[in-house]
Amino acid sequence: FAGFPVPPFSFGYVGSIVDFTFASYTKFEDYSQEIRFTYSGDNVDAMIGAYYLDQTSEGRDVRTLPDGADNIALGNFLAALGEQTAACDANPICGSISPFFGPGITVPRDVNELDTTNRAIFGLVSFDLWENTHLTLEGRWQSEKIEQTTVIQDVGVVATFPDPVDATFTSFTPKVSLDWQRSDNNLLYASVATGTKPGGFNGTVAIEAGLPTFEEEDVVSIELGSKNTLADGQMTLNLALFYSDVEGYQLTQNARSGANTTSATVNAGDADIFGVEIEIAARPEAVDGLGIVFNYAYTDAEFSEGFDQNEGVLNDAADNGLIDCSIGDQFPGVDGCTSLFGSIAGKKIPRTAEHQAFFDIEYRQPFGSGDGGWEWFLGSNFSYESSKFAQVHNFAETGSTTLVNARFGFTNETYTVNFWGRNLTGEESSPVVLRYADGAGSFRRSFVGSARRDTYVGVTASVRF
To answer: How many CB atoms within 10 Å of residue 432?
Structure first.
């Protein structure tokens, strides 16, 4: 403000250019080797092995600006300034507006090099505890070292070469499985398994934004199930109950440094996943040539604890529409204001459907004189997937999806001709919805979804030899 406290005031209007485009080139080279020794005896099967991987990758920013990019940005700035000037003319306390144009677009030429070395030893032993009861013990120890070298530079700017950084992720992941063959037609099983997804490094923009690395994601899974043959072999019925405890769940979020925005991996929090699955397959003797398959899965996947920066921004703006740290400051000892990070406990895991179902029916009969083993077939399938959340805040959804496909053709042991049609009902739901920041709208949170392919038909011919 100039002339304060006497109105009318003079305002300074600041505009800046944000480049929300990106293009990169990555080259991978890797060498791997695995060796195994196996043993099979009267009551014991065993295996031991080792694995080695050496992988290098080099990623480069290769984007270029379209002709007149700076002029386009300047035009947008002047148009916005004109709107503010018109508003000033209509406001008695506004005397004048002076433009202060922000920096031009920078074109990065960052280079990110990764050298990954993975060493592992694994083994398995499987034996009968007693008649019809089988126990399997497995284990894998691995150590993965990642070294990153980052070169930060823009076109026409001297590069900076930070010292290489490295991290080593070591894990042991055992598994125990128990099978009980109650009868020729019924098997009960239980398993407890552990797994890990190694941590790593983010790219150059994320490093500049303060998100250089992310930690491992660990999981413990328990599964109980039953496999059954019914109706004298005409039907199989499989049931499974599963639970997974995930720590350090890896998700992506936007990271911005200067005029550049990228997607960075972070450890969002811990999660619990519970589910039930049922599968039925039948070939009834009463209708020769008829085959039916049905599958249904229920999955309840949600975060048990964790905090997210963008969730905090949403909570902050909920009371008065302003991002003013009204709910608290995450970093009170740092100049400026950062909204208190928001809890994501109870939020559903993104891109996970609660209900999934699949049904397929097919009818086959001999074709022609029977010479050559030819058959004709006619089939269709139906699949359903309930709506999935696009991000951890559980606001944007894909919508539920129902797909219907059909097929008709001829086949024998050597040749197959298949006429098919897919998405026959013209389902329009988006397969994938991603969050991003709208660079043309003051970085308001927006979403982009890929379009689903409309109804399409085709023919496939194949030869087996």
So the answer is: 12
